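From the thread on structure requests for the teaching lab: each student submitted one protein with a one-line request. Submission from student K.M.:

"Model Catalase core domain-containing protein from Chrysodeixis includens, tokens only."
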Amino acid sequence: MAVLSLIAISSRQPLDGQERRRYIELPIGLWTKSSGEPTEIRDILTVNTDQFNNQLLLDSLTTFDAERIPERVVHAKGTGAFGYFIVTNDVSKYTYADLFNGIGKKTPLNVRFSTSVQNLGGNDLGRELKGMAVKFYTKQGNLDLLCLQTPVYLYRDPVLFQHQVHAVKRNPQTGLFNNRWDFVVYRPIQTHALFWTLADYGVPDGYRKMDSFPIHTYELANKHGETHYVRFNFRTEQGFSAITRAQAAQIQDPDYFNRDLFNAIGSGNYPAWRLEMDVMTAHDIQTVDYDPFDVTRLWKNGTFTTVEIGRLILNKNVENQFRDVELGAYNPANLVPGIPGPVDFLFRGRRSFYRDTQNYRIGTNHNKVLVNMPLYAKTYNRDGKPPVLLNMRNAPNYYPNSYSGPIPYVDEKRPKKKLQVLESNAVDLQPVSYFYNHVLESEAHRQRFIENLVASLEPVTPPTLQKVIKLMYLIDPDLGRRVAIGLEVAYAQRAAEQAAAQAAAQAARLRNTTIRNVPTAESDCKN
Ligand code: HEM
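Reply posted by the TA:
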């Protein structure tokens, strides 16, 4: 029998040996059952054998039956890669977070890219929010920045989440995607973020070519306990570029984004993003004439400064999609000392949703899965569904204790006060109007945006359509007018296409066609 040599592989060593991860892998060699028993050649075919006594058959089929875990409730389709972050600028004045301090310091990381509405196996080219979830494995724990390609979000109140997601996901009866506009007209706060996706930003030319934003205003603390308020921006070093509707229709590759990323990294063409932050002081945020914590709007030019932090580089493809991507659990509440984080109400909601959904999707021990595992962790959490790894061995499972269990530390730098913000429920269309008139920087871009908008409205029923057009006029009379005209043109075109299709079908009926049944017995086959 061949020698079974075992190799211990540990990619990121924890600081402490007690919880050291061991990934025991066999070199390519003997095929075994999951119990480790080597597979005998006569067990690999089972016809005319005693199948119930074939442990290989039982082991493989019953494991296969349970291969799937629930797909993510949103952002189900995606891919990922590994890389590192390198600090290029001294930002100690703003934060004492270890990973951002020390020019040249490198921190390993993992990124998962995703498209938000599609199910697993869906189309990368869907015009929708795209995700870039970054997990930095820092010495002070994991820092997760969950970003979208739009610098604004749909709403401020987390109570809208369930409804907004249902409105863009599948209809309970038909199983087809709902048309979101019926919901948008009742909750027009979404219009701003929606407009970003209807513009060129909605379908970038692959994940490598998009900027990405955690959106929320993050509180940062420096070593003197002073706070600053920042919006992080990941700026693509590949240059932003987009795919138009016509190009997307031609590409016809549902995995276009995943393929592009894998091929680029595989060929050594490592994608990179520059991380910078827009900064306001604690004084600034109280004096600006808008709400800087409002995730549905941009900060106004002239009210902040932009500071570079470093670069994110992806230089390693994942080895195993399920282990490294599907089991990824990114949680915006995973923060580190020096980054107390956002203070708005949407974020408060998000603090609990992610853990909850990941407990359901992966299990309560999801942070013990390789891709999620911090460099160091000692907790009083115990047991639950596997993986439990060493389960903290024989360490005490309650605190305080007399048996050298893990203890908390004192952070003298932590800010003494926590900022409380109150937010408005009002719908403000000014940022949307600004988007239409200024963020869309050229007439050509505005025209592409209108065409995408009109295309999304074509299936909408008349009562809803009237409300949409009213909303467009409220945002900007020029927008309302162009959408109304665009729809008339689109309807006329569709009517002409339908007439042509009917004529073609009629002509086909008149032709003599032979209909043959699919043979189900050999005698039916004539040749
Ligand atoms: C009320 C607001 C929000 C709720 C309730 C929410 C909830 C969720 C949930 C349940 C998931 C699936 C997580 C999983 O199964 O692992 C998810 C994924 C994600 N969310 Fe949110 N989300 C919200 C807002 C946002 C915002 C504001 C951003 C970004 C600025 C964002 C970015 C993402 C990204 C990038 C993912 C994909 C993570 C991955 O790749 O696994 N979400 N969100």
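TA comment: The chain has three domains: 7-65, 77-372, 440-507. The two ends are 52 Å apart (CA to CA).
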